[in-house]
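Subject: sequence -> structure tokens, single chain

Hey, anyone have a minute? Need the predicted structure for the following. Not urgent.
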Amino acid sequence: MSTRVTIQYFDGCPGWTVARDNLAAAARELGVTLDLSEQQVETVEDAERLGFVGSPTILLGGVDPFRPPDARPALACRLYPTPEGPSPSPSVAQLVAAIEGAGLAPGVSPH
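Reply:
Had a minute. Here:
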């Protein structure tokens, strides 16, 4: 099964590579293949047009499952709350849960 995933980032914020590595680990754990694309966001105008709320933004099937409700578009590095503390990426376990919650893993229905 292939799952469409986009990592949006801006140059100068290294957290997107952590997100890419954590997504790969989550995919291995779930036994899914990610159809991964990377989208560079270059300007504030791009951020506003895309609804980009910081680097990295992970889109599962076009949806950011980690988007804070009060987030505003910005060219900024993004931190995610994880059990280990703030991180530049959701943890592997958080990504597994998000992929499952979106119904993007085999045998799992969306919640």
